[in-house]
Amino acid sequence: MSKEYSLTTPLREDDVRKLNVRDIVYLSGRIYGIRDATQRRIFKEHVPPPVGFRRYPCLHTAPNVRKVGDRYLKICIGTTTSARMEEYTPKLIGEYGVSAIIGKGGLLKDSLKAMQEYGAVYLAVTGGAAALQTTQIEEIENTYWEDLFPECIWQLRAKNLGPLIVAMDSHGESLYLKVKKRAQRRLPRILKEIGATT
Amino acid sequence: MALEGRVLLEAIVEETAKELYVRALKRLPPDVKQALEKAFQLERNATGKKILETILLNIKVAEENDSMVCQDTGTPTYMVKLGTRMPIDGAQVIKAINEGCKRATLDYSLRPNIVHPITRVNTYTNVGKGVPIICIDSIPRKDYLEIMMIPKGSGSENMSFIRMLIPAEGLEGVREFIISSVVKAGGNPCPPTVVSVGIGGSFDLCARLAKEAMVRPIGSHSPDPAVAKLEDELLRAINKTGIGPMGLGGSTTALAVHIEVAHTHITQLPVAVSMQCWAARRAAAKIFSEGRVDYSWSFEEK
Fold first, then answer.
1. In sequence order, what are the beta bridge partners of B254?
2. What pLDDT is attached to residue B16?
3. pLDDT value at position B257?
4. Residue B223 has pLDDT above 90, yes or no
5. Interface check B50 vs A, CB under 8 A
6. Could you tell me if the ipTM is greater than 0.85?
7. Which among B184, B263, B268, B270 is placed 20 to 30 Å from B52, CA to CA?
8. Residue B216 CB partners (closer than 8 Å, separation 6+)
9. Which residues fall within 8 angstroms of residue A79, CB to CB, at 6 or more apart?
10. B282: alpha, beta or left, given left = phi > 0 and alpha = psi -120 to 50?
11. What's the rounded Cα separation, in Å, for the pair B67 and A13?
12. Is the minimum CB–CB distance between B107 and chain A shorter than 8 Å?
């Protein structure tokens, strides 16, 4: 039976270790929005980020915003596909101590291994449900690396962000891999049933 | 029509192109909402049901707050059917749509997505070389034009597959390629999806057919009975894979399978599979020669 948790960031290791796949989480507190270009700069150009990610969650996002003075106001904040960030994630968790990746579509084995080793999780949002997510992000508190706009580092304050589904836990379980393996196992029979060959 | 009339029509097309972009981002077509509600009723997997519940809540929040359904403002795509008696030409339509798309982006602070493919430099207007994507077809003897706007999300567009099958692979090969593509895509395209397929034509035409299949209302079928049958059997098969909402398990992997076909060469069997996420956004308008604009969700002209 899956459990439901309300957690506040930064997440301690024991917060994360108690989570299992299919559990549901609501997050409050500071989270950082990052994505492709942000991580290209950190890991390809070797520029350390100007903020400490340690034990904070990172959300795969690039929001729609309006700039008023030197502040950014939210218009629409959603979540992007995580798969493109697979190569950076083990280092983000291992070197920078990120406690949770909030994304959609999931990550692969190297990320899963890093989550197990360092005590991190993957929290799946309902992709595309940005109207709701925008109401759960209270404010854009700060923005770094504006030259990468819209792929800056976004410091966000969340209130009950969720439901987030624990899709990869710190015990080596990935719901994505489970579901995909099962689908691949079923495939020959499905194809046979509609008269296709494998 | 006098020159002023043509200039006025161009301004109306521009305004409509702008309005359609914003409408498409904020409201989902009724057929899409109904399909999602039905999926929520039928889904038995607890995780899948929770996700579908969140999707329905999100659609409601977007309507109540007049906000965007999804943050991805997409690759702006406009399909146009231009009546041959409409006093405006294709070049004017393209110019007007480009301008409307740019104004929507700037006036509404839409996220700018469009970059140069090599330098990755952003244009900040969602307009660039070849973007917005505009496809114009002529419709004979009509004095109106129809525009459909699709802000195509990239999570699902990245899950597009094309294969030049050979005739020996036959229908079996076609089915296998389509179902395997859905499994391969997993949760990335934000399922439940509209699995959009083009069969036949050439490398480029079958990709275009898949895009045309994508914008058909959910619940519609191909007028060709053999193709309609294939749509039905593929939908049932895909929903047996268990990929489920967001790839986290369940019986709702696809909301529909849409297939468009074209004749092809004796040596060829091209198949293109492209995914449309559950937020199957589109908006349409019909512009009459006297300047009236009627908004809707689909083309009237088939």
1. B193
2. 98
3. 98
4. yes
5. yes
6. yes
7. B184
8. B258, B298
9. A59, A60, A61, A102, A103, A104, A125, A127, A130, A133, B71
10. beta
11. 36
12. no
Q: Is the pLDDT of residue A198 over 50?
A: no
| Alpha carbon distance B21, B150 (integer Å) | 8
Tell me which of B47, B50, B229 to substitute to probe the interface with A (most A C-beta atoms closer than 10 Å).
B47
The answer to whether the beta carbons of residues A166 and B228 sit under 8 Å apart is no
What's the pLDDT score for residue A1?
A: 72
Length in residues, chain A? 198
Only one residue has tokens 């966000």, namely A156
Does any CB of chain A come closer than 8 Å to the CB of residue B155?
yes
How do residues B105-151 score in pLDDT, each as one tens digit?
Answer: 999 999 999 999 999 999 999 999 999 999 999 999 999 999 999 99
pLDDT at res. B300: 86
Contact A66 B109 (CB under 8 A): yes
Mean pLDDT of B81-88: 96
Q: Give the 3-state secondary structure of residue B169.
A: helix
CA dist., res. B103 & res. A172, Å (int) = 48
C-alpha to C-alpha distance for B121 and B68, rounded to whole angstroms: 25
Interchain proximity A62–B47, CB inside 8 Å: no
Distance CA B126, CA B101 (A): 7
Provide DSSP, B197-222: EEEEE-HHHHHHHHHHHHTSPTT---
- Cα–Cα separations (whole angstroms), residue B65 to A65, A75, B27: 16, 11, 11
Handedness of CA B30, B48, B189, B124 (dihedral sign): positive
Q: Do B187 and A106 touch (CB under 8 A)?
A: yes
With beta carbons less than 8 A apart as the criterion, state whether A150 and A63 touch. Answer: yes
What separation, in Å, do the N-terminal and C-terminal C-alpha atoms of chain B show?
Answer: 27
Q: Which helix (H) or strand (E) holds B144?
A: strand B144-152
DSSP tag of B128: B
C-alpha distances in angstroms, B295 versus A31, B87, B237? 40, 20, 36
The answer to whether B146 and B81 have CB atoms below 8 angstroms apart is yes
A-chain CB neighbours of B172 within 8 Å are: 191, 195-197
Tell me what pLDDT residue B1 has: 53
Flag whether pLDDT at A3 surpasses 60.
yes
CB atoms A131 and B67 under 8 Å? yes
pTM: 0.94
State pLDDT tens for residues B157-202: 999 999 999 999 999 999 999 999 999 999 999 999 999 999 999 9
Per residue in A24-59, pLDDT tens? 999 999 999 999 999 999 999 999 999 999 999 999
> How distant is the alpha carbon of residue B236 from its chain centre?
22
Residue A82 to residue B237: CA distance in whole angstroms? 27
Q: In chain A, which ranges are continuous DSSP H helix?
A: 13-17, 36-43, 89-94, 109-118, 130-136, 175-193
Tell me whether B22 touches chain A (CB under 8 Å): no
Q: Which two tokens stand for residue A106?
A: 């999931």
Q: What is the pLDDT of residue A196?
A: 54
